[in-house]
Each structure stands twice: as C-alpha cells, then as structure tokens.
Amino acid sequence: MAQTVAQPTATTPVVPATLPLKAIAPWAVFFGILMLVLLYFVGAEQGATSVLNGTDVHEWVHDGRHLLGFPCH
Amino acid sequence: MNSATVRNLLVRGMLAGLAAGVLALVVAYLLGEPNVDKAISFEEAHSHEHEMEVVSRSLQSTAGLATGVLVYGVAFGGIAALAYCFALGRVGRFSPRATALLLSGCALLAVYVVPFLKYPANPPSVGNADTIGKRTTLYFLMMLLSVLLAVAATLLGKRLAPGLGTWWATVVAVAAFAVVIGLAYEFLPAVNEVPKDFPATLLWRFRLSALAIQAVLWTGFGLLFGELAERLLNPKPAAATSGRTVPASH
After folding, report:
1. DSSP-assigned beta bridge partners for residue A45
2. Contact B80, B225 (CB under 8 A)
3. How close does chain A come to B225, measured CA to CA in Å?
4. Which of A57, B54, B136, B163 is least buried, going by the fewest C-beta atoms within 10 A?
5. Whether the Cβ atoms of residue A72 and residue A47 lie closer than 8 Å to each other
6. What torsion, rounded to 10 degrees, do the Cα atoms B9, B26, B118, A49 define?
7. Residue B231: pLDDT above 90?
8. Domains in chain A, number
9. What residue spans define the domains of chain B?
10. Domain range spanning residue A37?
11. What is the enclosing helix (H) or strand (E) of B239?
12. pLDDT in tens, B8-34
C-alpha cells in the first residue's frame, strides 16, 4: 500500500518553470514605476518635496506615514 | 501565455497586498494609534504655537490611516509580485508557495527591518521639521541600498552554489550582505532628534508597533500570495492528495 502511494512525483518538490525575462520586463517597467509613484505619495509627498500645492496629502496620510516608518515632519 | 502568467501573478500580488494591508491596518489601528495619540499629546503640551488642523484627528486615525496602509500594501504587493516573477524557479528547489513566503520574508528584512535598524520609525514630535529633506533622502537611500544589496547577495549565492554547495553559498551570501550593511550603518550619518523628556517607553512602544505592522503585512502577504500563486501555477489538486499520502508512506 505504502509503496504504491509513494510515487516520486509526490515526494520530490516540483521546481516551477521560470518565466522568461522578456515576458516580465514590460510589466515590471510599467507597473514598477506606477507602484513607486503610489509609494511616493504615501511616503514623501508634501514632506521633503512637493508635486502638489498645500498640505492636504501630507495631513491625510499623516498617521500612516508615521506608523509605516517614513520620516514625516 | 507567459505574459498572461505575469499579468495574473501581478493582479494576485496586488490583491494579496490589499488583503494583507487590511490585516496590517487592524494592527496599526489597535496597537499603533494609541501611541500616536500619546505622542501628539506630548507635542501639544510642549509646543507654544498651535497648528491649524487641516484634517481632523478622527479622520487621520481612521480613513487617513487606512488610505496610507492600504495603498502601501497594494504598491508593495505589486512590486513583490513582479520580483516573484523573476525569482520563481530561479532561487532554488522551492514550490510556488514556498517561494512566495521566502520572498516575503526577505522583503520584510530588506525593505523594512534593515532600514529601520538605522533610521527607525518616529512618532509625532520626534524629528526636527528643518531636517525632513535630509531624513527622507537618507531613509529612501538606506531602503534602496538594502534592496539592491539583497538582490546582489541572492545573485552571489546563486553563483557560488555550484562550487560551495547551497548551504555554504547561502551562508557566504548572507555574511557578505551583513558586512556591507554594517559598513553602511557605520558611514551613513546618524539621526537623533528625540526631544528632551520624550518618554522612552512611548518611543519604544511606538517603534515596536511599527515593526508589528510590517511583520503582519509581509507575513500575511506571503501566505495569501503564496496560496494564490500555488493555485494558479499548480492547478491540479495535488496539494490535498500528496499532503495525505506522504506521511502515510513513512
């Protein structure tokens, strides 16, 4: 019973196939930059530098900025 | 086909990041907010000028906090999913699920813990407003350096593995990472702007709660994204059957 169940495929971890770099690159560039822009607005906008005028963004994400470890003010 | 896999992993990464963000938000609200409030009370008791409130405290500590933590979760979920596409099948004999948890653990260390040990999170009233530019630059520099060095250490370990074996290649790569990070800690300028009389226990608790938020975020992300990736890449119900037959064979 045990021998019939313990197939090599069941015990050997399946190493997943790699994804070609050419397939990843366009997604990585476009969405990588988009995600970094999001992080910039949460972490640094209207603190060290400002793209938008005023302090609304800073004040709105104020608590998140402190608790996520970004320098706030 | 492969491009579709990348897209599917990216979408799942952002969704897992959002869900992990919700878990982290609960921790941030329950453990973090009381410390933020105490720090603001300290600030108000010690400053003479009163700032006009642009956003009320009740909004900052709820909707504002949620915006920050959830956007952070989605953004890092997306970035981690893209890194996962590179790592999958390239870092060793790990299943999709194990690769996800390994990547999350490394991300917690490289993105947060390593920068945090040099430039820890600070509550309101800690930090001089005049040095915000310098502190932000240093923090992002430390984060970038840590992530790039973690990638370099991974590549180094991969290169050494055929000669040294996986175990010693990993030990050497981690040691190289630790030495270079130690040099960066030594030579980058220190920041210490804790006001006189600021309660040490409050600072400690605030920083612990900040660390707890990240630990929950990245652990939650690793488990959720790992599950989604495993189901996407290994759609057969192998997990359920092999999980029961393997112990039976011993």
Report:
1. A49
2. yes
3. 16
4. B163
5. yes
6. 80
7. yes
8. 1
9. 1-48+57-126+198-245, 128-193
10. 33-73
11. helix B238-248
12. 999 999 999 999 999 999 999 999 999
Rounded to an integer, what distance in angstroms lies between the CA atom of residue B138 and that of residue B132?
A: 10
Is position A9 within any domain?
Answer: no
Q: Is A40 inside a domain boundary?
A: yes
Residue entry with tokens 């890194």: B83
Pick from A49, A56, A65: which is nearest to B54 by CB?
A56
Is B2 close to A47, i.e. CB distance below 8 A?
A: no
Task: State how far the alpha carbon of B6 is from the alpha carbons of B96, B164, B168, B185, in Å.
Answer: 13, 33, 32, 36
User: Does any CB of chain A come closer than 8 Å to the CB of residue B5?
Assistant: yes
By the 8 A CB rule, do B102 and A16 touch? Answer: no
Note the pTM of the prediction, 2 decimals: 0.90
B36-51 per-position pLDDT tens digit: 999 999 988 887 666 6
Distance CA A24, CA A56 (A): 36
| Other CB atoms within 10 Å distance of the CB of residue A6 | 16
Positive or negative torsion for Cα B121, B123, B126, B129: positive
Indicate whether A23 belongs to any domain: no
Dihedral of CA atoms B3, B78, B93, A15 in degrees, nearest 10, equals: -30
Cα radius of gyration rounded to whole Å, chain B: 21
Distance CA B33, CA B61 (A): 7
The tokens of B106 are what? 């490394």
CA distance A51 to chain B (A): 14
